[in-house]
Write a structure and sequence with these properties.
The chain is of the alpha/beta class. The protein has one domain: P-loop containing nucleotide triphosphate hydrolases (Rossmann fold, 3-Layer(aba) Sandwich), CATH 3.40.50.300. Helices cover 30% and strands 20% of the residues. The protein is built from six helices and eight strands, in the order ααβαβαβαβαββββ. The protein has an eight-stranded mixed β-sheet with strand order 3-2-4-5-1-6-7-8, with helices on both faces. Helix 5 packs parallel to helix 6. The radius of gyration is 20 Å and the shape is globular. The N and C termini lie far apart (62 Å).
Length: 201
C-alpha cells in the first residue's frame, strides 16, 4: 500500500523540480504613475519594445503620461528623440516636467519621412526613447518600428488616433487615453491577464 504524500511536502524536500522561480522582474522603466505601474506586468514600460498610445483627441495627455519617464532618462544623460511632433514642443513646460533639454532632440520632417527617421533612431542604439506621431501607418510599418526598438534596445512610443484601436498591432503595449473621464485604459500588453482595465490620471 502506498503512502499519500502532499505536493507541499515534496517541494520542501526538493524532490520535485519546479522550473523557474516565480520572481517578478523589477521594472527598468517605470512609467512614473504608480497605479499604471501596478497594472503593467513587470511594473513599467516594456523593455526594448514599441508602446502605442491611442489618443481620443490630439494632445489628449500623452506628454503628461510620458514626462516622468522622459525626465528620468534625460536627467541620467540619455537621449530622447521626438520625431515630427504635431506641435512645436514648449520648452518651459518640458523644463517644468523635469526634462533636461540638453538631451532632447526634435526631428522636424515630412510625414512620409517620419517613419524612416523614427526607425533609424530606434535601431541606432544611441537613444533611450523615441516618440513619434504617425497618422498613416499600417501593420507592416508598426512591425518595423517594433523590430527597430528591439534591435536598438530602445523604448519606442507611437502616439496614434484612438480609432486605430479596432486594428491589430504588433506593439508590445497598447494604451488608450480618454478625455472624459480622464483615464488610461490597458488595451493590450504582453503578459497582462486582464486587458481593458482603466487607471485615472
Amino acid at each position: 500500500m502506498s503512502a499519500v504524500v502532499s505536493i507541499d511536502a515534496l517541494l520542501r524536500q526538493q524532490r520535485v523540480w519546479k522550473g523557474r522561480g516565480e520572481s517578478v522582474p523589477v521594472a527598468i522603466h517605470p512609467t512614473g504613475h504608480l497605479a499604471l505601474d501596478q497594472l503593467l506586468p513587470g511594473g513599467g514600460w516594456p523593455e526594448s519594445a514599441l508602446s502605442e498610445i491611442l489618443l481620443a483627441a490630439p494632445g489628449a495627455g500623452e506628454l503628461q503620461l510620458l514626462w516622468p519617464t522622459l525626465a528620468r532618462l534625460t536627467r541620467a544623460g540619455e537621449r530622447v528623440v521626438l520625431v515630427a511632433p504635431p506641435c512645436i514642443p514648449y520648452a518651459p513646460a518640458w523644463l517644468a516636467a523635469g526634462v533636461d533639454l540638453r538631451w532632447l532632440l526634435v526631428i522636424d520632417t515630412e510625414e512620409r519621412e517620419a517613419l524612416w527617421a523614427a526607425e533609424q533612431c530606434l535601431r541606432s542604439g544611441s537613444c533611450a526613447a523615441v516618440l513619434c506621431w504617425p497618422q498613416r501607418i499600417d501593420d507592416r510599418g508598426l512591425r518595423r518600428l517594433q523590430l527597430a526598438a528591439a534591435t536598438g534596445q530602445t523604448l519606442g512610443f507611437a502616439c496614434r488616433p484612438l480609432r486605430e484601436a479596432v486594428n491589430s498591432s504588433p506593439a508590445a503595449l497598447r494604451l488608450a487615453l480618454d478625455c472624459h473621464p480622464r483615464q488610461v485604459r490597458l488595451l493590450k500588453c504582453r503578459g497582462a491577464l486582464q486587458p481593458g482595465q482603466a487607471v485615472a490620471l
